[in-house]
Specification:
Blueprint lengths: L2 E5 L2 E4 L4 E8 L7 E7 L6 E6 L6 E3 L7 E6 L4 E6 L8 E8 L11 E4 L3 E6 L1
Parallel strand pairs: 2-11
Antiparallel strand pairs: 1-3, 3-8, 4-5, 4-9, 5-6, 7-8, 9-10, 9-11
Length: 124
């Protein structure tokens, strides 16, 4: 069993930056591919970024490419999402998730453990 706790969300002005962190307890995150998802009001939860078990491979949805960076520190048991040049469309609840896959996992069904989410609100 893995417990995931997100932090770092908040209110930021458009053009600003936030850094989300996901801390794990229970088991080492090095066993899992990891992902960040988000769910905006009235919309489905979608993948934002994903990283392989080793950290060598990453994936970004088109709308965040060049602005967001996913990283992991297996020694610290954390995964982070650096978000720059935020805009109103980035407003959502952001979730950290762990997958038993080794390679990048893009589908929600690939993930077995989820955090409770952290709210990110971008004001105009």
């Amino acid at each position: 069993q893995v417990q995931l706790v997100e932090s770092g969300g908040g209110l930021v002005q458009a053009g600003g930056s936030l850094r989300l962190s996901c801390a794990a307890s229970g088991r080492t995150l090095s066993r899992y591919a990891m992902g960040w998802f988000r769910q905006a009001p009235g919309k489905e939860r979608d993948v934002v970024a994903a990283i392989s078990q080793s950290g060598r491979n990453t994936y970004y949805t088109d709308s965040v490419k060049g602005r967001f960076t996913i990283s992991r520190d297996n020694a610290k048991n954390t995964v982070e999402l650096q978000m720059n040049s935020l805009n109103a469309e980035d407003t959502a609840v952001y979730y950290c998730a762990a997958s038993l896959r080794i390679a990048i996992a893009r589908a929600q069904s690939d993930y077995v453990y989820w955090g409770q989410g952290t709210q990110v609100t971008v004001s105009l």
